[in-house]
Amino acid sequence: MKEKIELLAPVGSIESLYAAVENGADAVYLGGKMFNARQYASNFDKEELKKAIEYAHIKDVKVYVTVNILLSDFEFKEALEYISFLYNIDVDAIIIQDLGLANLVKKLLPDFELHGSTQMTIINQYGAKFLEELGFTRVVLGRELSIEEIKYIKDKTDIELEGFIHGALCISYSGQCLMSSIIGGRSGNRGRCAQPCRMPYTLINAETGKKISSKLDKRFLLSTRDLNTIEDLNKIVKAGIISLKIEGRMKRPEYVAVIVNKYKKALDNLYNRSDRAISKEDKKELLQIFNREFTKGYILGDFGKDLVAIDRPDNRGVYIGKVIDVDKKYIYILLEDSLNIGDGIEITDNKGNKNGIIVDSIFSKGKRVESCRKGEVAKIKKNGNVKKDSKVYKTSDVLLLEKVRKSFTERDKLKKIDIYMEVEIKIGNPIKMHLWDDRGNYVTIESKEKVQEGTNIFLTEEKVIKQLSKLGATHYVLKDINISLQNNSMVPVSILNKLRREAIEELNKKRAIINKRIEISQKDILNKMEDIIEKSKPYVKTRNKLLSISIQSPKQFEKIDLNKLDRVYISYWEGINKCIEEIKKHNKEVYLQTEKILTNLDFETLNYQIKSIGIENIDGISVSNLGTLKYIKENFDTNIHCDIGINAFNSFTLKFLEEYGVKSVTLSPELRLNQIKNICLNTNLMCETIGYGYLPVMISKYCPFSVIKGCLSDEECDRCKFRYGYGLKDRLGKVFRIIRKRGTTTIYNSQPLVVIENLKEIYNSNVDMIRLDFTFEDDIKEVQTMYYEFANNNIAEKNIIEFVNKIKKNTGLTKGHYYRGVL
Fold it and tell me: Do the domain assignments include residue 820?
C-alpha cells in the first residue's frame, strides 16, 4: 500500500483526544461549543481547542473541526468570527454542511481546507465533482455507498474521499432526515437530533390499520446495528477511501481508545502487507466496549435484517454465561467467560425482561473472590426479579477499561517523539544547544550564564547526557546527542536543566504550528463579508403571489385544476408528454421533478427521461441533490429549481445558488416565518415554501419489509407488493406512511402540513410561491381549490375554518416550523 491512509478518530472531550492520539489516530475530528452537529457532546471551548490542537500537532496528528450545521442568516457573523479563530489557531480543516457558509469561507479564507460533511448527501460522482469545483479538498461520502460505487466516484474525481468504517449508523441519508425536527423540534441539521429512529414502531397497513406481522409489532424497525469493517479494510482502501472515519463523538474516551487501537493494528497489517487476521481478543474487545450487534454496512453489502437489530436499540454487551440457580439473596451464574468485581452485567430472561447489575462482590466455592473464570460458578448478590435459565451479558468490563485508560494516562505508555541534540560547552562562553526533530524543526538556544573553569569538580559527558536526557514529563525521547565538552568545564546542573526545558518549549511551539498561516483579524473578515453582501444586494423586485402543485402520478394529474395554479412539478411516468402538452395549453409552467437520491448509474436513466420529454417542452427541472444540480447545469440549457433536498436555510446559500445559475428555490421547511422573510428580502431568486403536504421526514436506502422478506439487496424493490400503502405506527399511535421507490424508502409525517389560515401572512413575508405537495392522496381537488380561492380572496374565512376543522378531525394537522422553528 503506497498511499498514506488516514485513521480519523472522533473526539468529544479532551480525554478522548488523548485516547485517540496515544492509540494511533492520524487525525481527529471534534466540535466547539457551537455550530456543530453533536451539540450533546461535551465539546471544546476556545481555550480547550487551543490546547487540543497544540497537543495533537506536537504528536503529528491533524485536527478537523466540525462547523457542520445549517446556519440562519443571523448566525453568520458569529460563525465567521469563530472560523477565523479556528484559522488562526492552526486548525487543519473545517467540516461544513452549509453551502452558503462554504462559499463565503472560500472567498474570505481561500487557503483554509474544507471537508464536505456527510450531511451534504454526496452519493454520486457529480456531487463529489460539485464540491471539488467549489474548492473542497475532501468529501465525507454517504454511508449508503457500496465499494463499487465508491470506486466509480474515485475514478471520476480527484477530491479526497472519506468514509465511515466503525460506529453508529444513521438509517436515513444524512442531511435528509427531518424526523426529529418535525416530531419534537430538535433538528439533526442543527446538531440536536433526538434519535426517534431508536424508538419502537409497528409496521401496519396504512389503509386498514392492521399489523403486517407479529414479528414487526413494537419493534425497533429503524434502529441500525453498529458498523464494523475491521476485517475488510483492504477492500475499503482499494475502493479509494483515503480517510477511514470512526463514529463516536458522544462516546467515552475508553471507547475511542479501544476502537482506534484495533483499527490501527489492522491498518498496520495492510501497510506491512501482512495477512495476519485480527486476533480473537481484539475482536472481543471491539464487541465488549460497545455494540448494538455489528453490521458490515452498505459499504460491504449488508442489507435489511443484516443492517438493523429490531429487538433492542442499545448496547448488547458480550454473552458470558447462564443463571443456573436463584435464591432469596443470590444469583448463581455458570460462566462461559470471566467475571470481575466492578463489571456491569445484564441478565435477560426468556421473555426479554432485563436486569442491569454492577457487580460489587463475587463468591466462589464458599469464598469471597475478586474474579471468576470460565467454567466456574459465580455467586453474586441478587438485584431485581431474576429467573433461572436467564442469559447473562457483560456490558462493561472493568479490566478492559482500566487497561485502555492506562494507554493514554500513564507516562510510560504514551507515544514519544525522537529528538536529537548537539551541545557545545566551552569555558568562558555560554552553553550552545542545537535541538531538532525528524520533521525538520530546528531550535538553537544559548545559556545566559557562561561556562566556568572548575577547580575540584568538572562536567563529564556522562553527566551532561544524564541531565539532558531527563525528558520523562515531555513528549520526547533523546535519540542521539553529540557533545563538544572542553576539559575542566563546570556549570551548575540547574543551568543544563533550564536549557533543556527552554529548548523543549521552543520545539513544542514549532511543532504545534503546521500550516504556517499569516494571522488574520476577525475585523477584516467581517468587513470583507460586508463588502460581499453589499456587492450582491438584490435588486428591488415585486414579489409574486403564486401557487404551485407537486404531483406523483397520472391519477393525481387528472384531478388537478390547471386553471387554479401557476406551476406544476411533475414526476416522470409513462405518458408524461401528454400531461405536459395539457399543462402548456393552459399556459402554466411545468417542471420535471427529480428524485432526492440518484446513484452514479441513475443519471443515464434521467438523461433518457429528459430527452424523451424534450427539454424545450418544459420550463425547467427541479433538483434535490447537489449531484443532480451539477449534472443538469452541465448538460441541459434550462431553468433549475432547487427543492428541499438542497437544504436552503439562509440567504447566503441562495446567493451561491444564484451565482451558480439557479432560478428558483424551495426554502427549507425547518425555517420560521421571520427567517423566511429575511431570506426573501436578501435574494433575487424566486422563493417558494411548502403550504400543504405530508412532509418527507426520512429518506432511506433501507426497507422495513426487508427484515421479514430476507431481502439481500434493493434490486427487486420495483416489483415488490410492499411499495405503497404501508406505514410505521409509533408509541403514540401516529402513523408515518411509507413509499418505496427505486431502492429508496421515503417516510412521511403522520399529519399533513396545513397553513391555509396563514396564507396571507406567508405571502406577506415576500414569498413568491406557495406549494401544495401531493404524495399518496387521491382527494386533492378540494385542497387545491381552497388554497387557490383563499389566496385570491374568493372565499370567506368561515369556509376556511370549516375546511381546516375537517382535516383536524380526519387526520390532524401541523403548521410545521413556520411559528416554532427548530433548536
Answer: no
Does residue 218 share a domain with residue 96?
no
Give the chain's mean pLDDT.
Answer: 94
For residues 601 and 581, give the distance between their C-alpha atoms in angstroms, rounded to a whole number: 29
- Cα dihedral: 517, 475, 465, 443 (round 10): 0
- Provide the domain limits for residue 147: 6-169+224-302
Please report, for the domain that includes residue 147, its CATH number: 3.20.20.70
Q: How far apart are CA 107 and CA 488, in angstroms?
A: 63
Helix (H) or strand (E) run with residue 378 in it: strand 377-381
pLDDT the model gives residue 302: 94
Give dist(CA 565, CA 226) in Å, integer: 47
Return the DSSP state at 74: G
Name the domain count of the chain.
5
pLDDT band, residue 324 (cuts 50/70/90): very high
Cell of 769: 410561491
Closest residue by Cα to residue 116 from 131, 101, 130, 129: 131
CB 208 within 8 A of CB 156: no
Whether 596 and 614 share a structural domain: yes
Exposure pattern of 269-294 as b/e (b: 16+ CB <10 Å)?
A: beeeeeeeebeeebbebbbbbbbbbb
Q: Do you know the residue count of the chain?
A: 823
From 364, 386, 409, give the residue that closes a domain.
Answer: 409
Instruction: Flag whether 199 is in a domain.
Output: yes
Query: What is the 8-class DSSP label of residue 776?
Result: S
Q: Which three cell numbers stand for residue 497?
A: 536543566
**Grid cell locating 479:** 535519540
Coil, strand, or helix at residue 8?
A: strand
pTM of the model: 0.95
Nearest to 218 by CA among 354, 351, 303, 312: 312
Shared domain check, 204 and 336 = no
Task: Tell me how far apart the alpha carbons of residues 542 and 622 are, in angstroms, rounded to a whole number.
Answer: 23
- d(CA 213, CA 185) in angstroms, rounded, equals 31
Say whether 60 sits in a helix, a strand or coil: coil
Say if residue 741 is in the same domain as residue 767: no
Whether 608 and 667 map to the same domain: the answer is yes
In which band, very low, low, confident or very high, does the pLDDT at 742 lie, cut at 50, 70 and 90?
Answer: confident
Q: Cβ(476)–Cβ(483) under 8 Å?
A: no
What whole-number distance in Å separates Cα of residue 671 and Cα of residue 820?
A: 9
pLDDT tens profile 597-651: 999 999 999 999 999 999 999 999 999 999 999 999 999 999 999 999 999 999 9
Could you tell me if 199 and 331 lie in one domain?
Answer: no
Q: In angstroms, rounded to a whole number, what is the distance separating the alpha carbons of residues 596 and 598?
A: 7
Q: Check: CB of residue 640 under 8 Å from CB of residue 632.
A: yes
Last residue of a domain, one of 302, 326, 349: 302
- Is residue 817 domain-resident? no
Same domain? 645 vs 712? no
